[in-house]
Amino acid sequence: xxxxxxxxxxxxKASRKKKCPECKEYFRPFQSTQKTCEKPGCAIExxxxxxxxxxxxxxxxRRRWAAEKKEELKTRNELLQEAQKAFNAWVRERDRGKLxxxxxxxxxxxxxxxxxVDASHYRSVGACSYLRFDPDNVHAACTVCNRHHSxxxxxxxxxxxxxxxPERVERLESAPKHYxxxxxxAIEIREQYKRLAQELRKxxx
Length: 205
Hints:
Elements: H1 4-15, E1 18-19, E2 26-27, H2 40-73, H3 76-94, H4 109-113, E3 117-121, E4 138-142, H5 143-148, H6 153-164, H7 166-173, H8 183-204
Antiparallel strand pairs: 1-2, 3-4
Helix pairs in contact: 3-8, 6-7
């Protein structure tokens, strides 16, 4: 009695109608593992789709593995450059539509799309690596001020005091000059500011 009950349950389960994933018709499978109806074309097509799914999954895994290996092989300087790029992009998004921190020229959308806006450091990376990714230390500026007038630093300081206040400017000016950023910190900063820049873009849209 105890042996026939499980067999009866399995038999009932196997004979329950199922919907063929290919032709969408209902059929009664001969066994619980049967996935399609008895039509040969349905079984072949279903097998082909399963194979394609397995291939896509394997390719995705290989791409993920390759990306992880590529990330592991990046040098500290390469990661810092990527972090700087992400941070600078966030600065430009944060200051979009405002004025150049140094000369006051409007930084409108035409300036941004034309590549005429830089993320300008008050204290440069070379002079103070500690403030490399400090939001108070970096503001959007026109390329003329940033690239051709070394940041137009006198006017930059005047505008910066008006923007963030003298106490925060003094904090920047008294900050340590050097800091050795690690690979882990660079990765964290890169991902953080990629996310923050994307959030600002979504808000603007």
